[in-house]
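Duplicate of earlier report; XRE family transcriptional regulator input re-posted below.
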Amino acid sequence: MDRPPFSPANFLSIRRRLGMSPHDVAREMRVLNNPVHPELVTAWESGVHPTEGQLFALADVLWCRTIELMGIEEPRTLAEHRIARQFSVPRLTRAIEMDAAEYMRAEAENRWPGNLRQTISLLRVLNISQRQLEAATGSRDVMHAPSFPADE
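Output:
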């Protein structure tokens, strides 16, 4: 999987504003069960992107919203909405009762294949509106997704 969007400049600015050194960040990442070396923290400032798990922990360590570290104003894609809310694919797909491979295709293709129950669950879990989902997927009828036998 690709690394999530990341703004080295935002990261550096937030870290400095908090008065934390790369060693401080690495130490706090270890506390969150996401061990990294200070050299990796410095590499993030130079343009290396953290993994999703590292990004989630980094936002917690720096007491900031994930989108601040992503360098975006608002999420625009299905993946950005998920990452902004600190959901891994497995955690989200369990919550909305969707096959992980199907969901990953949806992110890759920016389309929403979910049935009505999955759609409502996605909106609730990610705390997004129908309009935001439609904008992220380019679909105007996400609430009229095909139903499956389990929905009837």
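The CA atoms of residues 24 and 149 lie 53 Å apart.

Merging into the original ticket.
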